[in-house]
Amino acid sequence: MPEATLEEPAPEAPELWATQSLLPHQVRESAQEMEESKRMTLQVVGINKAEQAKQKVIYSYNLIDLTKPPLPFENEFNLHPLNPTRVMSMRNALLSEGFCVFVQENQIMILIGPTSVDPSCIMMDPHGEPKPLVLNNLCLLKVFSIIGSQHRREAIIYIKKEYQKKLNNIVAVIEKKKSRWSHLKS
Question: What angle do CA 30, 33, 34 make, to 5 degrees?
Fold first, then answer.
């Protein structure tokens, strides 16, 4: 086995050689290859450009009663009809997982300019105390333009109807028992 002399450098570790061999390829990547690499990375980690763009334009997090909104909802970006199976699936998920107000999956993007919102309700902390959405007195909007969430809204409306029906049944039973009790008293 020949010994390494001062003139000859010692053989490099394979890991170092592999790292160095990648560097020239990375430097020679075209702008198109770099963009494709970035797109693939974002896709792998689950971030898309539409989501990034939405996050950049948020100026307030607010609460709104989806069953009685101050203005009707209009979803011009997703014109697909409601799928009853998907609504029921969403209903089941909401009931089993619970309602987490500011979880990103439960957020509904309302496209509304800051001038239409009362400044007292603007809140940028998604983990802070929630504030209800209050429209400015000068707001001229006729509808809320939203992005997606039509199945989630419909599932929430369905759940509210189910619970209202149960509540009505309980109230009816209580009234019936009150009536019987007052009859027995007399």
Answer: 85
